[in-house]
Automatic annotation (TrEMBL):
Residues 177-279 form the Pyrroline-5-carboxylate reductase dimerisation domain. Homodecamer; composed of 5 homodimers. The gene is 107359574. It comes from Tetranychus urticae. The keyword Aminoacyl-tRNA synthetase does not apply. NADPH binds at residue 67. This is Pyrroline-5-carboxylate reductase. Signal peptide: none annotated. GO terms for biological process: L-proline biosynthetic process. Pathway: Amino-acid biosynthesis; L-proline biosynthesis; L-proline from L-glutamate 5-semialdehyde: step 1/1. The keyword rRNA processing does not apply. Residues 15-99 form the Pyrroline-5-carboxylate reductase catalytic N-terminal domain.
């Protein structure tokens, strides 16, 4: 894997530990290593089984099946260490006493990526006075193009270096906590909605006779281009859309088809459903499966 030389100005976060080795943890680790911001040897990941840690070991990271060993190793970096809580929200609540025992005396950064778990809930479990950051990233951090919103009780000493580091792989806004669940629905879950749109665009082109590989490449490039145009021109999406819709042309016929199918309402409903699910998780109303 090609990677740039580490940026020494960002390496004050000297050790990073990930409690949980799921898709989000893997996306973060890949992003940090790929962009050269953290050496693989500076990362340790705790997973339930040795086999689930193999993908991290192949990147050059240390792995363990014992959370206590991970915390002990990261503690050696003092306030320059960071532990990422990448477990499922239900697991965190169910094992609250274990997490409190592990982290109540940790003086580094504690970064939660768990949907629906508020700062108050984190402090109730881990204790007050810790350097806790509640965040909601999306998986595009793995390519250095993520959205990773965060909220923090106070900009504690040392928060800036964590912010600088994580903003190298994402748009990293610091927001009021009341907005985190909305951003989770918009971006944390929303990236999956965009993937679905890319798949649908590709399906449409395949139906009309285009090769699947080329169709998907063009669909993805179209979405990237549209997003970049909105961001860089700071123009309302509907204004940009209208510039594509020539009178009697092909695009307005397609827009009419989307309107008839209720496309806008479907997307709004999806963001709303994901946002409300975060609030359900925050209230501890986990569905039994």
């Amino acid at each position: 894997m090609e990677k740039s030389s580490p940026d020494k100005s960002l390496r004050k976060v000297t050790k990073m530990g990930f409690l949980g080795g799921g898709n989000m943890a893997y996306a973060i680790v890949i992003g940090l290593i790929k962009h050269g911001k953290v050496e693989p040897s500076s990362i340790i990941v705790s997973t339930r089984t040795n086999s689930s840690g193999e993908k991290f070991a192949q990147l050059g990271c240390s792995t363990t099946t014992k959370n206590a060993d991970l915390v002990k190793e990261v503690k050696g970096s003092g306030s320059d260490g960071a532990i990422f809580l990448c477990v499922k929200p239900a697991q965190f609540i169910e094992s609250r006493s274990n997490f409190r025992a592990l982290l109540s005396c940790f003086d580094g950064h504690i970064v939660s990526v768990m949907a629906g778990i508020t700062l108050e809930a984190l402090e109730d479990v881990l204790g007050k006075g810790l350097n806790i950051v509640r965040t909601i990233p999306n998986t595009a951090v793995q390519v250095g193009a993520g959205v990773w919103a965060c909220t923090v009780r106070n900009n504690y000493s040392g928060f800036e270096k964590l912010q600088n580091l994580l903003s190298t792989i994402s748009f990293f806004p610091v927001v009021e906590e009341r907005l985190i669940d909305i951003i989770s629905g918009l971006s944390g879950s929303g990236i999956a909605f965009v993937y679905t749109a890319i798949q649908a665009l590709s399906d449409g082109a395949v139906k009309m006779g285009l090769d699947r590989t080329l169709a998907t490449q063009i669909a993805a490039a179209t979405v990237i281009g549209a997003g970049k145009t909105v961001k860089e021109t700071e123009t309302h999406p509907y204004v940009l859309r209208d510039k594509v819709c020539s009178p009697g042309g092909t695009t307005i016929y397609g827009i009419h088809a989307l309107d008839k199918a209720g496309f806008n309402g479907i997307i709004v409903d999806a963001v709303e459903a994901s946002t409300l699910r975060c609030k359900v998780i925050a209230q501890g109303k986990q569905e039994k499966k």
